[in-house]
Specification:
The complex is a heterotrimer of chains A (349), B (274) and C (300). With 349 residues, chain A is an all-alpha fold. Chain A contains 14 helices and three strands. Chains A and B meet through strand 1, helix 4, strand 2 and helix 8 of A and helix 3, helix 4, strand 4, helix 6 and strand 8 of B.
Chain lengths: 349, 274, 300
C-alpha cells in the first residue's frame, strides 16, 4: 500500500486547488516531452514541404558596397581584385534541396555549390561508435555489477561504488578532452592505426560514459532478484558462483537487457566525446579504425553557424529528430516491455 | 556567492553610468575576436567617451546579428553569402557595406618529420580532392596522406574550398576538426598528416612553402611574403556594417584602417593591409 | 559443466577483473588530469580572466558563467522537480494513468540526448519564446531575446536536469515513515498541511541532494549550451539575462580545439579540466554524503 492511499477523507477548496496546482506542475514533464517533439520536428518539417530550392540570381548581380578600400596597399589591391573576380565567377552559396534521394545518398557535404545531405554515413557512424562503446562497456559493467552484488568483499565494494560514482560524475567534455589528448595517442601507438582519431578511440572513450549507466541499472536488477530464489539455490547445495551464474544472472536478464538498451541510448546521443575524438569524417565504411562522423557530433559542430531557416538548418533538426525518436523508442522499450516482464517474472503472473 | 552579488550590483551601476557614453557593439568571427578585442582596448584607452563591446560566436553568428539588428559592426572571416545579403536587404534595404580590415595568411602544415617542404597550389588541391593520396606522389615518403580540415561552419573551410579547391567538395575521408588548434595538434601527432588553417605556433609541425604554379618560386608564409602578395594563400578579414558608416562608428573604422590601427594587427599574428 | 571448478574460478576472477578494470580506468583518467593540471592551478588562475589572446591568464569569467548558469537553473528546476516529486509520491495513486504518463515522461526526459535539448532550446526558447517576446516588447527590428543568452541556456539546462531532481526528491519522500503521515492526518491536518509541514521538512536532505546532483550534472554538460548561450571569449562578465557567457566545459572544448597555440595552452587546458572536475566532484561528494545521512536516518 502506498502513502497516497491514506488521504481519502477531507475535501477543501484550498486543498483542491493545491492538488490541481501540483498536478499541473507535474504535468510539465509530460508537456516538455511533447514540446521537444513538436519543436524539434517543426524545424525539420520544411524539408518535406519545400519543393523548389530558392535561387538568388538577382542579388548576385548587385555590386557589394565597400568602404575604406583606399586603405589597401598595392599587393592587397591586387588580391582584392583577384578575389572579386573569383567571387563573380563562382556559383554562390546554394541552399540546396533536401530531396529524399539526396538525404539517402552517401555524401555529407552540406556546404557546397551543390549541397549533399546524405544521412547514411552519419547514421552508420553513430551506430558504429555506439556498438563499439556498448561492446566494451556492457561486459565490463555487467560483470562488475555481478561481482559487487555477489562475490565482492566489503572493502572492494567500498572502493568500486565510489569509483563508479566518480566515473558517472565525469563531464563528457572531460572524457572527450582525455580521449583527444591522451587516449588517441595511446591507441595509435598500441595498434599502429593509420588514423589517430577514429571510431575505435571514440568508442573506447564513449564506453567510459556508458559504464556507469549499465552498471547502475544492472546492479539494481541483480539486487532486485528475490532473496528467496538465491537462498533456495544455496540451500540446495549450489555454490555462490553457481547461484550467481545460473540463478541470479538469468533472473536479472530482463533488467540487464534494459540496462544495455539505455546504455546504447546514451552512447547514441552523446555529443562532446565523439565530436572531439572521432575525426568527424563522414565515411561510409565498416572499418573500426576509420574516422567517423556521428549524427550528434554533426549537429554540435555545424549548428552554431548555420543560417537560420536554411535547408542545412532544417536537415540538422531532422538529424535531431532521428536522434530523439531513436532514444525515445529505446526508452519506451526498456520501460514498458522489459519492466513489465521483469515484474511478471518475479510475481509469477 | 557574495562576490557575485557584489559584482552584479557593480556592473548594474556601471551599466547605468555608461548610458551617457557612445556604445559600439562588435560581434562575429572567433578568428577575429582577439584582434577586435585588442583594437577596442587600444581605441578606448584613447577615446574615453566611446565604449566598444566585442563578442565572438562565429562569422555566421555575427552576420545573423547584423541582419537582426543586434550589432553595429560584424566581424567575418569570410565574405557574406548571397542569402545573407538578401535577408539584410529585406530588413534594412541594404546589401551591407564591406570593409577589408586586415589580412590573414593561411598555412598548410605537415608533421615536422615529413620531408616535403613545398607544394604547388595545384598539388594541395589534388591532395584535398583525393586525387593525390600518397606522399610519394609529391616527393615524400611512401605513405598514405591523412587529410585534416576545419569544420564546414568555419570561414577558413569556405575560403579553402572556394579558392584552393575551386569550389569542389573535399575528399570524403577528410577529417573535420573544430578548430585550428585541433588541426595543428592532430598534424603534430600524425607524421603523415596534412592540415591547413591560420598561422600556428605549435611544436611538431612545419608550415609549407607554397608555389602559385609549377614555374613560380615557393614562398613560406612569412609576414614579408604575405604583405608583398608573393605568398599565394592569403585572405581578407572583413568587417560589415549595414549602411555607410557615420559618426562614432566611422571614426572607429577609420582608426582601424589607419596606420595606428593596422599596427595592432601584427601583434595578434595577422597581417596589415599595406 | 555446471560443476566444473574452472568455471567458478573464471566467474569470480573474470568479474573481479572487470571491477578492477573500471577502478583502474577511473584512476588513470583522474591521475592524468591531476598531474597535467596541478602546476598551472593557482589562485591567480582561478581569479583572473584569460589574457594575451587566451594563451595566458585564468578562467575566472568561465567560473562565474558556470555559477550563474547553475544558480539560475536551480531556481527554476528544483521547485518544479520537487513539486513533481510531491505529486508522484504523495498525491498520485499508482493506478492513475496520468501519474503513469508523468513517470514515463520523466524517464524519457532522462534519456533524451543533451544535444537534442540544445536543439529544443534553440527552436523553442530562442526562436519561439524569445522571438515572441521581441515581437511583443521590442520595436520589431532589434532582437534582444531571440538570440542565445544566459537565460535560455539555464532554462534548457533546468529541463534537462529535471529528472535528476524528481528521482532524488521522490526517493527521500518515500523514506519518510508512513507513521508520521498517519499521525499528522489523525491530528486533523489536511493533505497539503501534511505534505508541507511533515513530509517536506523530513525530506529536505533529499531535496538538497537532488539540487546538488542536478547542479553537478548541469555544470559539466556542454552540448545543450553550444548554441543556446555559451561564448568563446567575452571581455566582460555577463550583467543581464540576455547576455552570453563563458563557461568552464565550453572553455575546455574551445581551448583544446581552437586556441591559437596548443602547446603553450596545454597547462591551461588541463587546469581548466581539473577545475571543472573538482567542481563536479565536490558537488557529487556532497550529494553522496547527504544521501548517506538521509538513508541512515531512514533506517534509524
Amino acid at each position: 500500500m502506498r502513502s497516497s492511499d491514506l488521504y481519502t477523507r477531507k475535501f477543501h477548496v484550498s486543498e483542491f486547488l493545491a492538488e490541481k496546482l501540483i498536478a499541473a506542475t507535474a504535468f510539465l514533464s509530460f508537456a516538455v516531452i511533447i514540446l521537444i517533439f513538436v519543436f524539434v520536428f517543426r524545424e525539420a518539417l520544411p524539408i518535406f514541404s519545400s519543393s523548389e530550392p530558392a535561387t538568388h540570381d538577382e542579388a548576385v548581380q548587385e555590386e557589394v558596397e565597400t568602404y575604406g578600400e583606399e586603405a589597401l596597399g598595392e599587393a592587397s589591391q591586387l588580391r582584392a581584385a583577384e578575389e572579386k573576380e573569383r567571387r563573380a565567377g563562382s556559383i554562390e552559396h546554394v541552399e540546396g534541396n533536401a530531396s529524399l534521394r539526396n538525404l539517402l545518398s552517401t555524401d555529407w557535404q552540406p556546404v557546397s555549390g551543390e549541397p549533399k545531405f546524405g544521412l547514411l554515413p552519419l547514421i552508420v557512424g553513430s551506430l558504429k561508435v555506439s556498438l563499439i562503446a556498448i561492446l566494451l562497456a556492457a561486459p565490463l559493467a555487467i560483470l562488475a555489477a555481478l561481482y559487487t552484488s555477489t562475490f565482492a568483499p566489503k572493502r572492494v565494494k567500498e572502493i568500486l561504488k565510489p569509483a563508479i560514482e566518480i566515473l558517472a560524475g565525469f563531464p563528457s567534455v572531460v572524457i572527450g578532452f582525455f580521449a583527444l589528448i591522451v587516449l588517441a595517442t595511446f591507441v595509435q601507438d598500441l595498434f599502429g592505426t593509420m588514423y589517430r582519431l577514429n571510431a575505435f578511440v571514440g568508442g573506447v572513450a564513449l564506453s567510459l560514459a556508458v559504464i556507469p549507466i549499465v552498471y547502475t541499472i544492472a546492479e539494481d536488477a541483480i539486487a532486485a532478484v528475490p532473496k528467496s530464489m538465491t537462498e533456495a539455490s544455496l540451500a540446495l547445495g549450489a555454490t555462490s558462483w553457481q547461484t550467481a551464474l545460473f540463478v541470479t544472472l538469468p533472473a536479472a536478464t530482463p533488467g540487464i537487457f534494459a540496462a544495455v538498451l539505455l546504455g546504447v541510448g546514451r552512447a547514441f546521443g552523446e555529443t562532446m566525446i565523439v565530436l572531439m575524438a572521432t575525426g568527424n569524417a563522414a565515411l561510409m565504411t565498416f572499418n573500426v579504425t576509420d574516422p567517423v562522423r556521428t549524427m550528434s557530433a554533426t549537429i554540435g559542430a555545424e549548428m552554431a553557424e548555420v543560417v537560420f531557416g536554411d535547408t542545412h538548418y532544417n536537415v540538422l533538426f531532422l538529424i535531431g529528430s532521428i536522434l530523439f525518436i531513436f532514444t525515445f523508442t529505446l526508452n519506451a522499450v526498456a520501460e514498458f516491455y522489459i519492466r513489465r516482464r521483469l515484474l511478471r517474472k518475479f510475481r509469477g503472473g | 556567492m557574495r562576490p557575485i552579488i557584489h559584482f552584479l550590483t557593480l556592473s548594474i551601476v556601471a551599466a547605468a553610468t555608461m548610458v551617457a557614453q557612445e556604445v559600439i557593439t562588435v560581434k562575429g568571427s572567433d578568428t577575429m575576436v582577439l584582434l577586435a578585442q585588442r583594437w577596442a582596448e587600444v581605441y578606448m584607452s584613447k577615446h574615453q567617451d566611446v565604449t566598444i563591446q566585442v563578442t565572438g560566436g562565429g562569422s555566421g553568428t555575427g552576420i545573423s546579428a547584423l541582419i537582426n539588428g543586434t550589432t553595429d559592426i560584424c566581424n567575418s572571416s569570410r565574405p557574406m553569402k548571397t542569402s545573407e545579403k538578401q535577408k539584410l536587404k529585406q530588413r534594412f534595404n541594404s546589401l551591407g557595406v564591406e570593409i577589408k580590415a586586415a589580412k590573414d595568411g593561411l598555412s598548410v602544415y605537415v608533421n615536422e618529420a615529413n620531408p616535403v617542404k613545398e607544394l604547388t597550389i595545384e598539388q594541395v588541391r589534388k591532395i584535398y580532392l583525393g586525387e593525390i593520396t600518397n606522399w610519394k606522389q609529391v616527393g615524400g615518403d611512401e605513405a598514405r596522406i591523412i587529410l585534416y580540415s576545419r569544420e564546414n561552419n568555419s570561414g577558413t573551410y569556405v575560403y579553402f574550398k572556394d579558392n584552393i579547391l575551386e569550389g569542389k567538395d573535399y575528399a570524403p575521408n577528410t577529417q573535420s576538426l573544430p578548430g585550428t588548434a585541433a588541426v595543428v595538434n592532430a598534424v603534430s601527432k600524425d607524421k603523415n598528416g596534412i592540415g591547413y588553417g591560420g598561422a600556428a605556433y605549435g611544436r611538431g609541425i612545419r608550415e609549407l612553402a607554397l608555389k602559385a604554379d609549377e614555374s613560380s618560386m615557393a614562398y613560406p608564409p612569412t609576414a614579408e611574403n604575405v604583405r608583398s602578395g608573393a605568398y599565394p594563400m592569403t585572405r581578407f578579414l572583413y568587417m560589415y556594417v549595414r549602411t555607410r558608416p557615420t559618426g562614432s562608428a566611422k571614426a572607429y573604422i577609420d582608426w582601424i584602417l589607419s596606420d595606428e590601427g593596422q599596427s595592432v594587427v601584427q601583434s595578434i599574428g595577422y597581417f596589415p593591409l599595406r | 559443466m555446471r560443476n566444473a571448478p574452472w568455471l567458478g574460478t573464471l566467474t569470480v576472477v573474470g568479474s573481479g577483473a572487470a571491477a578492477l578494470t573500471i577502478i583502474l580506468l577511473v584512476v588513470v583518467v583522474m591521475a592524468n588530469i591531476l598531474i597535467g593540471g596541478w602546476d598551472t592551478l593557482s589562485w591567480e588562475f582561478l581569479s583572473a580572466a584569460p589574457t594575451e589572446g587566451m594563451t595566458a591568464g585564468g578562467v575566472f569569467p568561465a567560473i562565474v558563467g558556470t555559477f550563474l548558469r547553475v544558480i539560475l537553473m536551480s531556481i527554476v528546476g528544483v521547485p518544479i522537480g520537487a513539486i513533481t516529486a510531491i505529486y508522484l509520491s504523495e498525491y498520485a495513486s499508482q493506478r492513475s494513468i496520468f501519474a503513469r504518463f508523468i513517470r514515463f515522461a520523466v524517464n524519457t526526459l532522462a534519456g533524451v540526448p543533451a544535444i537534442v535539448f540544445g536543439l529544443f532550446g534553440l527552436g523553442f526558447f530562442i526562436q519561439f519564446v524569445g522571438g515572441g517576446m521581441d515581437r511583443a516588447f521590442g520595436d520589431g527590428v532589434e532582437l534582444r531575446w531571440a538570440q542565445p543568452n544566459l537565460l535560455w541556456a539555464s532554462l534548457t539546462m533546468a529541463l534537462m536536469t529535471l529528472p535528476v531532481v524528481i528521482v532524488s526528491v521522490e526517493e527521500a519522500m518515500r523514506n519518510v515513515p508512513r507513521e508520521l503521515r498517519e499521525a499528522s492526518l489523525a491530528l486533523g491536518a489536511s493533505r497539503w498541511q501534511t505534505v508541507y509541514k511533515v513530509v517536506l521538512p523530513n525530506s529536505i536532505t533529499g531535496l538538497l541532494t537532488g539540487g546538488v546532483l542536478a547542479v553537478s550534472r548541469g555544470a559539466g554538460e556542454v552540448a545543450p549550451i553550444l548554441f543556446t548561450g555559451a561564448a568563446y571569449f567575452l571581455p566582460h562578465l555577463p550583467n543581464s539575462l540576455s547576455d552570453q557567457f563563458m563557461e568552464l566545459g565550453y572553455h575546455i572544448y574551445v581551448m583544446s580545439t581552437q586556441s591559437p597555440d596548443v602547446e603553450a595552452t596545454m597547462g591551461i587546458q588541463y587546469a581548466t579540466t581539473l577545475v571543472l572536475l573538482l567542481l563536479t566532484f565536490s558537488l557529487n561528494f556532497a550529494a553522496v554524503y547527504l544521501r548517506y545521512r538521509m538513508r541512515k536516518r531512514a533506517i534509524a
